[in-house]
Amino acid sequence: MPVFFQQQINETTRLGVWKIEETEEFFKGNVPVHRDVTHPHKRLQHLAGRFLLQFLFPDFPYELIQVADTRKPFLKDEQYHFSISHCGDYAAAIVSKDKRVGIDVELVTEKISRIKDKYLHEDEQVLFGITETAPDLQLLTVLWSAKESVFKWYGNGNVDFKKHIQLFNARKEKQTIDCFFSKTESELVIHYRLFEELVLAWGIS
Ligand SMILES: CC(C)(COP(=O)(O)OP(=O)(O)OC[C@H]1O[C@@H](n2cnc3c(N)ncnc32)[C@H](O)[C@@H]1OP(=O)(O)O)[C@@H](O)C(=O)NCCC(=O)NCCS
Fold first, then answer.
1. How many domains does one find in the chain?
2. Residue 1's pLDDT is what?
């Protein structure tokens, strides 16, 4: 089943996660490649991410996609705002007619605990109860993914995750985390979903 998760967020914004089970040929007829991707699996991820854009909004104009120096893909006339992420055999995209968006998808792995001090401030580690001895890998991945989605939402690069993105107020029942992004002095609500091996996070504003 290729569509792993789908959500109509509101009238103008849609999100989808694709489990990649297809070969390159499936995507190639329908989707243009927007950058030189030599590694075959990365090329497949890239194609699946692009494929989702028209899957979510069939009139999405692939031919108008440009790629900024920061590597963020965008449409100049902002007919749609969009964000793409891929990890392992998954690709995710969020597309909106009127809001800036950022999305991230991550597989939960042990690696995340080794870099926690790079992306989480001490205050955040205390707030979210991160321990040295038995770190909660899923929680650490949610926090990382939340910050990546803010990075994508912003799109201009040069973001210090620890300094510029402050997470607080996680609401488990709603699956949201509040965020303050100091570069634009914005408050954002990051939404997340947990799957067996996967974490998905997105922000809209
Ligand atoms: C650049 C970055 C988006 C690349 O991510 P990645 O590991 O390849 O992850 P993803 O698969 O989630 O995202 C890739 C997609 O993001 C999009 N993207 C790339 N650069 C982007 C940017 N600056 N802004 C928004 N979106 C961007 C593209 O759509 C890309 O896919 P595509 O080229 O196939 O279209 C991101 O991981 C990054 O650099 N993060 C910052 C890391 C950092 O600064 N860490 C410091 C704290 S430790």
1. 2
2. 56
Joined together, the tokens standing for residue 38 give 């030599």
Residues 48 and 137 in one domain: no
> Probe ligand 1: pick from 38, 54, 85, 116, max atoms within 8 Å of CB?
85
CA–CA distances in Å: residue 193 to residues 44, 50, 95: 24, 22, 17
C-alpha 187/C-alpha 167 separation (Å) is 10
Q: What is the pLDDT of residue 130?
A: 94
Same domain, 24 and 67: yes
In the reported structure, the alpha carbon of residue 127 is separated from the centroid of ligand 1 by a whole-number distance in angstroms of 27
Domain boundary among 99, 114, 142: 99
Helix (H, G, I), strand (E, B) or coil at 157: coil
Residue 74 tokens read as 């965008």
Ligand 1 mean position to 152 CA, how many Å? 7
Domain that holds residue 146: 104-204
Per-residue pLDDT at 31: 87
Same domain, residue pair 64 and 78: yes
Indicate the pTM of the whole model. 0.96
Residues 84 and 167 in one domain: no
